[in-house]
Design a protein that fits this description.
Helix content of chain A: 40-55%
Number of strands of chain A: 14
Strand content of chain A: 15-25%
CATH superfamily of the largest domain in chain A: NAD(P)-binding Rossmann-like Domain
Largest sheet of chain A: 7 strands, parallel
CATH topology of the largest domain in chain A: Rossmann fold
Number of helices of chain A: 11
Oligomer: homodimer
Structural class of chain A: alpha/beta
Shape of chain A: globular
Strand order of the largest sheet of chain A: 5-4-1-6-7-8-12
CATH architecture of the largest domain in chain A: 3-Layer(aba) Sandwich
């Protein structure tokens, strides 16, 4: 089986690649080839017996998606995107990378389907950013997407295209609306949501972290490990029972910052918690107040998608996956 | 004031043009120029004192929307589209006409805004086809659009673009999700929904009409007159209070076929009703069962949009507007 991952140099792309290499199979099929693409060449994974192509490509170049589709991957994980902040700052780039490259990919698949019946599974990484405030505390699956960012708009449009191309039989698509990923590994980044991860990640290794919002702030989380699990399930599950509504809110954990901190205390003690420095930031607080706090995710749960149910689990997954299993 | 109407040769375009010419003002501003465009040149309206340009243009030609925007209309009614059946039969044409031409128009507006602060009101004709079954009997404003046609997908994508271009300040857009228009004037057409109009329109002038579905079938209706009223209100209302959710389900009348027929009887008697010939069609019946039966339209009603509240009103509007006021 041949698997293509776009955005393979990103966090989820790297985690998924690691997992696929470790498993050596997807579902019950042996993975014989991995095509890993990103705007910079993704790192070549160690320990994989099959063929690996690591390519630096620009998916917004109109010829590139067709070239990738011409290699006939059985499963396409389409993660490539610029992040919300960049898409808001650069209108043209956001629409080009986040929307046009996806459209080009789906079009290339449709033409290959028409030509010779090519019919890949396409797993698209969408986002809870398709929703914009106001919304209920627990957003139902039937809630309307009214994004308040260009990034969210681009993801919502890609979802509609995915559903239509799938409905018309050109491909077997599924859109995965990811929660905020916590704990993101690596260095602190400048995303406004970065503190959700850094207030846990940094104290776990004895470093200080800044908390810019009040502790009652509630948000919607899943670990990188859970996100990879969503992707594997999306790639292998029987989609016949999903019907034409192919974009699913993933399960996650609705938790306050206070609950995050309490879980940190349970696992790493008061000394770790003491490394969190309060530095209130009104702008970040107002942004957080406009973000979704929870989802029912009824359909995804019924379809077998699984996420963490406590922040202790999320922290434990981080310690196991990033810190060698112990503090 | 300069007004541009795309799709001006279509039914709503012609009705709106007639009304604008009759009113000679939009809101409180005198209409000095009308630019009427369609794939065939729209008819030149009689009795208008200002400038009228009637143009046959292809909006999917990348240079055309920019040329139209270069004339700096104060209000743009963007109605141009191919219908649902055609968009389903011709995938490429549907995406080109219904999506790409709209995107080109919004892009031309954005660039003109950047260059010199151009900021038109844009009224976009959307459709209840953005919704796909299953749904509740009365669909709330917060219900998710999950279209089951390419036409509905294209309209839903245009809505998202309209909201994002508006949110970013390039234009002042509003999307109007029209009910099924009943009674459509003119000859019977081949649309699956055509019978909703023809079972009233034909008997009112002594002609036979075919009813292909059972009488309990319920659907969502508004008259052409109400549709024109929606467009005028959308073009003139203060949009500051609407916020970023710029796509509105219009009010309408939820009625069964039996209620339509009873209204015909009240106005035109048993003789008219006797002209309805039952000719059950399983395919059309199944299609109807997948269509929306009603909308809450709470936001639109609160914002002052008004539709008919009985089929007697809808039939009376038809008699006044199409049949000279009497049978």
């Amino acid at each position: 089986m041949h698997i293509l991952i776009t955005g393979a140099a990103g966090m989820i792309g790297r985690k998924l690649t690691e997992r696929l290499v470790a498993d050596a199979v997807l579902g019950e099929r042996v993975i014989t080839k991995l095509t890993l693409v990103d705007i910079v060449a993704p790192a070549r994974p160690a320990g994989f017996d099959g063929q690996v192509d690591c390519l630096a490509v620009d998916l917004a170049n109109a010829t590139v998606p067709a070239q990738l589709v011409a290699t006939r991957p059985d499963v396409i994980f389409h993660f490539a995107a610029i992040v919300s902040g960049e898409a808001e700052l650069d209108f043209d780039k956001g629409y080009l990378i986040n929307l046009e490259s996806t459209r080009l990919m789906f079009e290339a698949i449709r033409l290959a389907h028409q030509a010779e019946g090519y019919f890949p599974r396409v797993v698209f990484a969408s986002s809870i950013a398709v929703f914009g405030a106001p919304f209920p505390d627990l957003i139902p699956d039937s809630f309307h997407p009214t994004p308040l960012t260009s990034y969210g708009t681009q993801k919502a449009i890609c979802e509609l295209l995915l559903a239509d191309y799938t409905r018309r039989g050109s491909m077997d698509g599924i859109g995965i609306r990811l929660p905020t990923i916590c704990i993101r590994p690596g260095a602190p980044n400048k995303a406004a949501s970065g503190f959700f991860s850094s207030i846990l990640r940094e104290p776990l290794v004895g470093k200080e972290a800044v908390l810019p919002v009040p502790e009652p702030i509630r948000h919607w989380h899943a670990s990188p490990r859970a996100a990879v699990g969503f992707m594997l399930h999306a790639a292998t599950m029987d989609l016949a029972c999903v019907g034409p509504r192919r974009n699913l809110c993933m399960p996650g954990l609705s938790a306050t910052v206070a609950e995050q901190i309490e879980a940190l205390r349970q696992i790493a003690g008061d000394k770790a918690v003491a490394l969190i420095r309060r530095e209130p930031d009104d702008l970040i607080t107002r942004m957080c107040e406009g973000w979704a706090t929870g989802f029912e995710a009824s359909r995804a749960i019924a379809l077998g998608f699984v996420a963490e149910t406590s922040f202790e689990q999320i922290i434990t997954a981080h310690i196991e996956d990033e810190l060698g299993g112990s503090l």
